[in-house]
Fold these 2 entries.
Entry 1:
Amino acid sequence: MGDADTIARMSIIVENGERSVRMAHLACVGSHAINGVADLHTELLKSNVLKDFHAFTPAKFSNKTNGVTPRRWIKLSNPRLSGLLDKELGKDWARDLELLRGLEPLADDANFRAHWRDIKRYNKYLLADCMKHRTGISVDPDSLFDVQVKRFHEYKRQHLNVLHIIALYNRIKQDANAGIQPRTLIFAGKAAPGYRIAKLIIRLITSVAEVINRDSVIRGRIKVVFLPNFNVTTGQHIYPAADLPEQISTAGKEASGTGNMKFSMNGALTIGTLDGANIEIRGAVGAENFFLFGKTAGQIAQLARDNSSPMQFVENNAELQDVIRLISSGLFSRGDTELFQPLLNTLLHADPFFVCTGAAAYFTRQQQVAETFHDQEKWARISILNTARMGWFSSDRSIRDYCEDIWRVTKVPVRLEGIDELSFVQSLQ
C-alpha cells in the first residue's frame, strides 16, 4: 500500500481527476542532477517539495547558491566604489571577489570610512536626481534610503513595509516633534497582469505616497517614491545608492534572491528574514551586521498547521490597529472605504504570508535601524564589512560550482587580449 501511494505521488501523470503532466516530476526523472539555489531552498526541496524523489535518488540532489557578477553590479554600476577598490586592493578583485576581504582592516580607519560615506552619498545624489526626473518627487540624499525593489508578490511582503510607513506617518501626526529618523522609502517592481492583490499593494503604495508627500506636518521627514518600469538599467542606479534593502519575504517562500547580494556588495545593510540566501548572507557578513527579524521557515510551517488567527496578533498590537484603521477610513483612497478592503480582508482573516504575525518584530527592528543609522561612523563600518565579506556570492563561484559538480565541463581559461574589462562589459549592454 505504501509503495502504491509513493508511486502515485511520484507519477509523471496526475492519476486522479483530469489527467495532466506534472512537469516538475518529468524534469526530475529526466535530469541527472537536481539543485536548489540557496541552502534553505535545497533543504525544502529535499524535505518537502521533492521529498519522494530525494528518498529515491538522494545522490541527484545538491545545493548551488546563486551569485551575481561584480563586473556589472559593482564595476559598471558603481564606478566610484570600483575606483576605490582598485586603489586599495588592486584591479584583480573583479575576477576574484574574495579579495574584498582586504577591506576589513580599513573598516576601522576613520579616513577610509569618510571616503566610503562620500561615495555612498554621491550615489544617493545620482538616484535622487533620477527619481526627481522620473517622478517629480524631490528627496533628501542625507535621509535613510530604505529600498524594496523586486517583483510584487504577497510572499515578498511589500505590504508589511507599507504598514510600517503608515505607522511612521501616524507617529508624526500624533506628535509633530516625534524623533523620527528622516527616510526616503523607495519601491520598484512589477506585478503579474492578473494578480489583483499585488496590483492593489502597488495602488496602496502610490496612494500612501500621495498623502505623505504632500502633508506639511511631515515636513519631508519621510518621503515615499515608486519608480515606474523597473528594469536592470534602473537597478544600476538603485543598488549602489541604497542604505537599507528590504529582504522581508515570509521564511520558506523565497528560493534565493539575488537583489540581496547586489545590495550587500554595494555596502547596504539588510533588514530581513531567515529566507532564501539571506541566511547565507547573514552568516557571511556577521549576525551583528544584519537586521534580522521574524520566524524561521519551520516556525512558519507550524503556524500554518496550527491555523492560528491573524486577529490575535492585531489585537495585541495597538500601533498595527491604528494603521489598519487609517487604511479602512479611506484616508489613502480619497474617501473610498472599499478600495483596499480586499487587501485588508486577506490580512485580517487569512494572512497566508503572516504579515500581521511579523509586524511587531518588524516595527521593533526598524527602530534599531533608525538608531544605528543615526551613528554614521558605526553605519559606515558595518557597510564596509558587508562589502568585504560578499566574495562568496560572486557568480564566478556559482558558475564554477555548476561546472565542477553538475555540468562536469573542462575549464578553459579565456583571455581578452587588448580589451579593457569595463569596456567589454559595457559593450554587452
Entry 2:
Amino acid sequence: MTTYVLVTGAWHGSWCWKRVREALTRQGHSVFTLTLTRLCERSHLMSPDINLETHIADIVNLIRRDNWRT
C-alpha cells in the first residue's frame, strides 16, 4: 500500500486530517499527519526565527524519526 504524509496549512493542525487518516488507514495505507512548528498545538514554539526552512525540517524529521525506507 501507499504511505501518505498529510501536512496542514496555516491555522490548522494535524487534527484536521482525522477523517481522511481514518479512511486511508481502513484501506490499508500508512498515514502520518504533521502539525508544523508554530501552528496550532505547536504554537508554544513561536519564534521570529521560524520560516520555510523550519517547516521543511519538520517534515524531514518526521521521515527520519520513523526511519522510512524507499
